[in-house]
């Protein structure tokens, strides 16, 4: 069977579309609504942001079961259900006059995102790619950043011109349209069902022997990996509050949306970079480099807020996009690196759950932290502490890990 074909890269294109719709639009671009919708509903920003938290938690719970679901049922049908839930819930948000209705619709949208978001995307890429796994993963998930970079200012301008209600309807249409290529063109989640092998696959006896072993999850290394994931992804919510950061130092909402766009551009750049570095060096070294980059960005944001220096905030916002390179690309690659193909779906289902739990908790906590302190500086300090802890955890994982896929 063929292990290299145009179909492999067509699958990457489909995953790009799914990432742009599920992560880019439904997760990365929703921050532009926080300030204006909260004001319209006459609630605190943290109270409105709770709908995003509930959405992310619903995504997390969905991820625990989705790997089994996509093995049992046709993924095309599962994908259709997911996009209908996400697009439909977003459309109905335009008619919402109560924050509690936003909570319900946020949960429905979160379930939809879980059905065709991070775990299914990385499982498909892991099935289809043996070699160039890092490149394929980074290409696909970089489109979540590209989508966020394009739609954050676009949604912001639509809100200004047409109001947030109509903008939610436009957003719902975009969510659906982005998924259409993957729905229309025939393809299968397993390349062997199309008489193909994973890209660059070669039958290596030593690899087969390792991958056939079942990993024990309750190990120090796996628990450290879980804590690493939870702490890292709890920092990602800062990007959704960059619009609020701008407003807090008397800059316009439009400038705040530009900060978010710069973050999404950094998101794209660093996702592509981490995939290249992973294939060139190793996933561990690539992740460490991105964490250090993000630490530097937090320092710039901290100083930018103190001195109200817009250029520092622009540079810091761009570099802060590196947070997504680890959360979206680095963590799946580390999971694949340590646990192998055979155990990937099982291990990453739980790690993917924690990814969304971390993101969900940060969205609301950051909002409330600002509501009660009227400052984002404490948020940046806490994020730096989390990075320090994670670097220590990564060292522990590397020193103690002796399970399947140990390099």
Mean of pLDDT:
83
Q: Looking at CATH, which topology would you report?
A: Growth Hormone, Chain: A
Element-level helix/strand string: HHHHHHHHHHHHHHHH
What is the correct CATH architecture? Up-down Bundle
Q: Distance between the terminal alpha carbons, to the nearest Å?
A: 29 Å
Helix/strand structural class: mainly alpha
Report Rg.
20 Å
Q: Any idea of the CATH class?
A: Mainly Alpha
Sheet having the most strands:
none
Q: What is the beta-strand fraction?
A: under 5%
The tally of helices reads 16
CATH superfamily assignment? Answer: MFS general substrate transporter like domains
Number of strands: 0
The helicity comes to: over 70%
How many separate structural domains? Answer: 1
Flag low-confidence runs: 205-213, 402-407
Shape: globular
Structure overview:
Residues 12-402 form the Major facilitator superfamily (MFS) profile domain. This is Major facilitator superfamily (MFS) profile domain-containing protein. Keywords: Membrane, Transmembrane, Transmembrane helix, Transport. InterPro entries: MFS, MFS_dom, MFS_trans_sf, Proton-linked_MCT. One of its GO terms (molecular function) is transmembrane transporter activity. This protein is an all-alpha fold and 407 residues long. It has a single domain (6-187, 213-400), classed as Up-down Bundle (Growth Hormone, Chain: A), CATH 1.20.1250.20. The protein is 80% helix and 0% strand. The protein has 16 helices and no strands. It has helices spanning 6-28, 34-41, 45-72, 75-93, 99-116, 118-128, 133-162, 164-184, 205-211, 220-233, 242-248, 253-280, 283-307, 310-320, 322-373, 377-400. Helix 1 (6-28) packs antiparallel against helix 5 (99-116), helix 3 (45-72) runs parallel beside helix 5 and helix 3 (45-72) packs parallel to helix 6. The longest helix is centred in the C-terminal third of the chain and has 52 residues, at 322-373. It is globular, with a radius of gyration of 20 Å.
């Amino acid at each position: 069977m063929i292990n290299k074909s145009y179909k492999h890269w067509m699958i990457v294109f489909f995953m790009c579309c799914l990432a742009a719709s599920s992560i880019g639009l439904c997760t990365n671009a929703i921050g532009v609504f926080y300030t204006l919708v909260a004001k319209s509903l006459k609630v605190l920003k943290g109270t409105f942001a709770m709908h995003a938290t509930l959405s992310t938690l619903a995504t997390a719970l969905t991820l625990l079961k989705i790997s089994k679901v996509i093995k049992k049922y046709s993924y095309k049908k599962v994908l259709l259900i997911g996009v209908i839930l996400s697009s439909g819930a977003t459309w109905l948000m335009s008619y919402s006059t109560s924050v509690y209705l936003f909570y319900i619709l946020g949960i429905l949208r979160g379930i939809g995102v879980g059905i065709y978001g991070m775990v299914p995307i990385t499982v498909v890429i892991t099935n289809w790619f043996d070699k160039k796994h890092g490149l394929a993963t980074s290409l696909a998930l970089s489109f979540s950043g590209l989508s966020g970079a394009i739609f954050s200012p676009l949604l912001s301008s639509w809100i200004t011109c047409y109001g947030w209600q109509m903008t939610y309807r436009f957003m719902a249409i975009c969510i659906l349209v982005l998924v259409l290529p993957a729905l229309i063109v025939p393809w299968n989640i397993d390349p062997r069902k199309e008489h193909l092998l994973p890209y660059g696959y070669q039958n290596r006896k030593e690899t087969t022997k390792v991958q056939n072993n079942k990993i024990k999850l309750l190990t120090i290394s796996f628990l450290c990996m879980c804590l690493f994931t939870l702490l890292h992804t709890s920092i990602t919510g800062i990007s959704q509050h960059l619009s609020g950061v701008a407003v807090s130092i008397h800059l316009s909402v439009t400038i705040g949306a530009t900060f978010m766009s710069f973050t999404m551009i950094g998101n794209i750049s660093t996702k592509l970079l981490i995939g290249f570095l992973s294939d060139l060096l190793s996933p561990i070294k690539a992740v460490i480099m991105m964490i250090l980059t993000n630490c530097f960005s937090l320092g710039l944001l901290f100083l930018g807020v103190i001195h109200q220096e817009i250029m520092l905030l622009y540079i810091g916002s761009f570099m802060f996009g590196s947070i997504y390179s680890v959360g979206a690309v680095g963590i799946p690659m580390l999971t694949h690196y340590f646990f192998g193909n055979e155990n990937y779906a099982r291990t990453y289902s739980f790690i993917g759950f924690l990814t969304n739990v971390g993101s969900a908790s940060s969205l609301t906590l950051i909002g409330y932290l600002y509501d009660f302190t009227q400052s984002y500086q404490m948020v940046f300090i806490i994020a730096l502490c989390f990075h320090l802890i994670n670097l220590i955890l990564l060292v522990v994982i590397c020193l103690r890990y002796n399970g399947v896929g140990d390099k």
